[in-house]
Amino acid sequence: MKKRIFSGVQPSGNLHIGNYLGAIANWVKLQDEFESIFCVVDMHAITVPQDPETLRKKTIEIAKIYLAAGISAKGGSASGGDPTFPIIFIQSQVPEHTELMWILNTISKMSELEKMTQFKDKTQKGGSEGAAVGLFDYPVLMAADILLYGTEVVPVGEDQKQHVELARDLAKRFNQKFGETFIIPKAFIKEEGMRVMGLDNPEKKMSKSAESAYNRIELLDDEETIRRKIKKAVTDSGSEIVYSDDKPALKNLINIYAAFSNKSPKEIEKMYMGKGYGDFKAELAEVIIGFLTPFQEKYSALSDEEVLEILKDGAEKVRPIAKEKLDEVKTKVGFIV
Ligand code: AMP
Ligand code: TRP
Q1: Residues of the chain whose pLDDT is less than 70?
Q2: Which ligand 2 atom sits closest to the C-alpha of 142?
Q3: Annotated catalytic residue 281
Q4: Which of 186, 208, 263, 330 is catalytic?
Q5: What is residue 34's three-state secondary structure?
Q6: What is the tens place of the pLDDT at every residue in 54-80?
Q7: Which domains are seen in the chain, by residue range?
Q8: For this structure, is 208 an active site residue?
Q9: Which of 15, 157, 181, 268 could staple 19 via S-S, CB 3.0–4.6 A?
Q10: Ligand 1 atom with least separation from CA of 216
Q11: 325 in active site
């Protein structure tokens, strides 16, 4: 039997090549080997303020990005195995997620949530006093997402590892208290190219929420924008194209080049021996464009109606799985189901 994987992305901000290389590209590779469920996590998105109309638009946008990237969730098109999978759906269309979260809340500790790096980062400016309780509790909802489906593998970027650890701890704790119920999930983190750094600051990861648009290449950026952003990307001192930890900005650009060209950093170094940043950057922009153009063509060919239909269908497929697990949990804690 195939193992199950579950992952999700929030419909906030604009997805960038870091999201693609760190998360979605991985999913596409794994989708046939596993029973795959990919979610648009709109309930996570509202843990920070969102404009309702924008949230609706972004939710459809993320689903289109999943499909354009190659998640074959159009029903029956998965190669071999159970044609039910891969599934894509919207988190808020399956209420079992929040129900399970409530129960998990009762076995989660304040101290373990206070440790979460993401919470600490997101409350750095204003302090945690004014932060929404939902932001604090975000990792428990994520644990519910994962545990509801008997997920064994969670493909995410490095930054989500701590949250997956919490899901593991909660699963173990629940099992110990109430008897064997949850599968203990594992994070799956791709070693190479997993962390794409900001183009304006190679010390910090490329981010949807970075203030400057020059931090990232967005998946829906047009050609001119991509060329401009790569041109402006910070570089290190010196003029040679070398792949080394002493040159973090260049290392990041070479990693991006490598990921989109299927060449190794060493090969790229060789290609640019005796050449300067100008040549390298110009060609890097074209490599990215070469990937993004067909991606964007697929994206544009999808209609909102078609995508909403696929998402509804996905929610209908996952609900029975979710309900079965939730009923088991409710019974174990003493609810009358
Ligand atoms: P986020 O953009 O934080 O909502 O993350 C969505 C997914 O993309 C998660 O699995 C992240 O780990 C991954 N991700 C986000 N930013 C990066 C990045 N700069 N490099 C690699 N993966 C990333
Ligand atoms: N918190 C994750 C992020 O921001 C998104 C997410 C929500 C998720 N639920 C999940 C990822 C379950 C994997 C599994 O990237």
Answers
A1: 74-82, 191-194
A2: 9
A3: no
A4: 208
A5: coil
A6: 999 999 999 999 999 999 886 544 445
A7: 4-193+304-333 (3.40.50.620), 213-299 (1.10.240.10)
A8: yes
A9: 15
A10: 19
A11: no
